[in-house]
Amino acid sequence: MSYQPGLHILSRIYTTQEELLVSPDSLRTYLSEEIKRLDLHAVGEVYHSFDGGGYTGVVCLTESHIAFHTWPEFGLLTVDVFLSNYQKNNESKARDFWKSIQNFFQSSEFQYEEVYR
Amino acid sequence: MSYQPGLHILSRIYTTQEELLVSPDSLRTYLSEEIKRLDLHAVGEVYHSFDGGGYTGVVCLTESHIAFHTWPEFGLLTVDVFLSNYQKNNESKARDFWKSIQNFFQSSEFQYEEVYR
């Protein structure tokens, strides 16, 4: 009963790149490349744009999931990177992925939390 | 810049109800009813079953998302309930939802963490 699935990074990222918070198109392209680079494996996704701005993007992975919710009116988004350690330890990969996401949104202001779960 | 999206409950739930960890069918039916009961609003979902057992289920909501990853071989699943407070405070609703999920899995053993994000 002692199996711990893995590391979940919860973050709030601030950015002045409003277009990246309004349309999920660039994120979607970026994520599909990034998932390949990190040798992760997508098994399904949802992208939903809200009337009046903002979107939700979730990609399910064999290694768990990543999730994005944007609020362009506040210049921020939430980011979840949860990679389980089922077949190997993915903790450094989760941090690598988050750092890449931060760069993608050209952000220097953020809140960051790690939960081992 | 001070908007805080909301409450994110991260949980690991242990259960002896193996069938509920193997097939997402019952969870899917339960969640669609529960989302109505709580006056939440689904905007997309992914359900993916893994060869050899276990599944991922994610439902995106206008209020953010809920996510499930099961490991039948360990008798456990992870549960995320993240409800944002964009139009109203949904913190008590998030706790209500999690408690209902715990009952659904007939679990008395769990790990539970709340993150305000």
Any overview of this molecule?
The structure is a homodimer of 117-residue chains. Chain A is globular and about 45 Å long. Chain A has helices spanning 18-22, 25-37, 91-104; strands spanning 6-14, 42-49, 55-61, 64-71, 76-84, 109-116. The longest helix of chain A is centred in the C-terminal third of the chain and has 14 residues, at 91-104. Chain A has a six-stranded antiparallel beta sheet with strand order 2-3-4-5-1-6, covered by helices on one side. By secondary structure, chain A is α+β, with helices and mostly antiparallel strands. Helix content of chain A is 27%, strand content 42%. The two termini of chain A are 13 Å apart. The first copy, chain A, has three helices and six strands. In chain A, strand 3 (55-61) and strand 4 form a beta hairpin. Chain A has a single domain, classed as S-adenosylmethionine decarboxylase (4-Layer Sandwich).
